[in-house]
Amino acid sequence: MKLLKQLFQFYINSSIHVALSVFSLSWISLIEFQISYDADVLYFIFFSSITGYNFVKYFGIAKFHHRRLAKSLKAIQVFSFFSFLMLCYFTLKLNTVSLLYILGFGLVTFFYAIPFLPKRFFIDNQYNLRSISGLKVYLIALVWSGVTVFLPLINNDHSINLDVVLTGIQRFVFIVVLMFPFEIRDLQYDSLKLGTIPQKIGVRWTKFIGVLLLVCFWILEFFKNNLILNNLIVLGVIMVITMLFLILSKKEQGPYFSSFFVEGIPILWLVILLLFNYFN
Is the separation of the CB atoms in 42 and 7 below 8 Å? Predict the structure, then answer.
């Protein structure tokens, strides 16, 4: 039992779970636009998510406490290194346009963690993008929507039409709402200067806005030129599930309410979509 618990904690802490969520959303994009499974771009996204998230989460710790790292953190460092090698391998398999697109998001990830801008923009002495008041949730949603919608399509030479743009907006809205339970949980830890949405408008209004955004997320599907019934139904199911988790969110959460269950909604979305398409 202790070993299983340690493996589960490693699964969460090493960003495998969040990487699977990003992977799932990317595969969903391929399915929605009726593009064949593209292992190269999907595995690139998976390993780049592990590398990027672990870089952002553990950069400061590794920098200042390298000689005193806990065993678990050292294991994550080793795992991240091999993930980086796999990232490099799959990078070589992508087309040139995809590589240029990736470069932009790679720079955003880098500057999200690394101090580089003047002090007057920040709430503390970190001087990186994640420290700019009120920016974090939108920056994460922008990167997730860009990577999970546009990158898989660009790598498959799919045109960026109205349906793709609407899907990008849907994905942005979905990720913003998916972040709300995390921000509600972190109310007791975050500095008031961070300017998160629950800090600005309170938990009740955050949930209310989240519900409205989820309804918009589903309604946008009706504006697409190629409206597919299976996608519409599955989107509605995911809207309801996400809405329930948002409504149940509170400051005093279980340790895995957000980090496992909420973050796992994209994985559930993929599973439901695959099953739905298989049986229809």
Answer: no
State the Rg of the chain over Cα: 19
Distance of alpha carbon 124 from alpha carbon 244, whole angstroms: 35
- Count Cβ atoms below 10 Å from residue 107 Cβ, excluding itself: 10
Could you tell me the residue range of the domain that residue 111 belongs to?
2-278
Q: What helix, strand, coil percent values describe the chain, rounded to 5? A: 80, 0, 20
- d(Cα 147, Cα 158) in Å, to the nearest integer? 14
- The pLDDT tens digits of the residues spanning 46-58 come to 999 999 889 877 7
- The count of domains in the chain is 1
CA distances from 138 to 84, 105, 178, 236 (A): 26, 14, 11, 23
Terminal C-alpha separation, the chain: 40
Cβ-Cβ contacts under 8 Å for 170 (sequence gap 6 or more): 217, 220, 221
Residue 155 vs residues 52, 165, 221, 275: alpha-carbon distances, Å: 20, 16, 23, 26
Decide: 17 and 11 in contact? Cβ < 8 Å. yes
42-81: b or e for each residue (b if 16 or more CB lie within 10 Å)?
Answer: bbbbbbbbbbbbbbbbbeeebeeeeeeeeeebeebbebbe
Neighbours of 103 (CB within 10 A): 10
Q: Give me 59's structure tokens.
A: 């950069």
Section 136-155 average pLDDT: 92
Q: Evaluate if pTM is beyond 0.85.
A: yes
